[in-house]
Each structure stands twice: as C-alpha cells, then as structure tokens.
Amino acid sequence: MLRKVGIVVLLMVATGSFGWGCGDDGTVSQSSWKGMFTQVGLGAYPMDLEITEQTGINISGKLIWTDGPFGTRVDTQTRFIGTLNGNSVYINENEYIQGHGVLIPTVYNGTIDGKNLSGTAQHGGSNVGSFQLTRQN
Fold it and tell me: In the chain, fewer beta carbons within 10 Å around the N or the C end?
C-alpha cells in the first residue's frame, strides 16, 4: 500500500497536479487574475492577467493595464507566452495588442499559492517591480 501512495504522490509532483490555483484538472487555462503591480520608483497600479491557453506546461494570454503610474489612465493590452511548472510561473510579456507605454519585453517570475500569484518583474535584466494577483475564476 505504501508503494502505491508513493507512486501517486510522485505522479502528482511530476505533473504539478496539487491544484495551486489550478482548476480541478490541474490547469490554469481560461483563468483571470486581478491585482496590483508595484513599479520601482513609480508606485502601484492595477494589473490583470488572463491565461487563455495551456498546453502541458506552456501557457499564453494577455495582460491588461487600465491605470498607470501616478493615476494616469491607460488602455493597454499586451500578449505573453510562458510556462507553469508546479507552482512556478514564468511569463514573457512580448507584444502589444493595443495601446502603449508598457516596457516590452518584461519577464515575470512568480509563485502560485492557493488562489494567489505573486512575484517579480525584470526588464533588460534589471528588477522593475513586483506583482500580487488573486485568481477570479
């Protein structure tokens, strides 16, 4: 019996199916995350992340920016590609869908803990901020 339990746990670890903010099937596809991005030297403003596709560990979607530093109104959407490996998330924001004023490319490294996703952002190898998001669906 112990051997069967060990195999099941090993499979769960190998496939990342513990459910860190994931759906019942271990995925994050079609998920929406909302929260704040805190940019170094410029303060905090809203950040929305929509994961629209997931194939294995590969994910893609868009980031939605409605407000910028100092309360400036923006209407910017960007596309990203990335990976979800266990509870670790890597996102490469690499293309404008609409709008402007976002540093591209920006790389986000985060960790999912329950319904929360938080981490840091880098542009050109330098830390440019941090983010804290909560899953909405």
Answer: N
Neighbours of 1 (CB within 10 A): 5
> Which pair of tokens denotes residue 114?
């329950």
Name the token pair of 14.
């190998």
List, for residues 29-79, the tens digit of each pLDDT value: 789 999 999 999 988 999 999 999 999 999 999 999 988 776 777 889 999
Each residue of 49-71: b (16+ CB within 10 Å) or e? bbbeebeeeebbbbbbbeebeee
- Whether the CB-CB separation of 76 and 104 falls below 8 Å is answered with no
At residue 114, the 3 state secondary structure works out as coil
- The answer to whether 115 and 104 are in contact (CB under 8 A) is no
DSSP string, 32-89: EEEEEEEETTTEEEEEEEEEEEEETTEEEEEEEEEE-GGG-EEEEEEEEEEEEETTEE
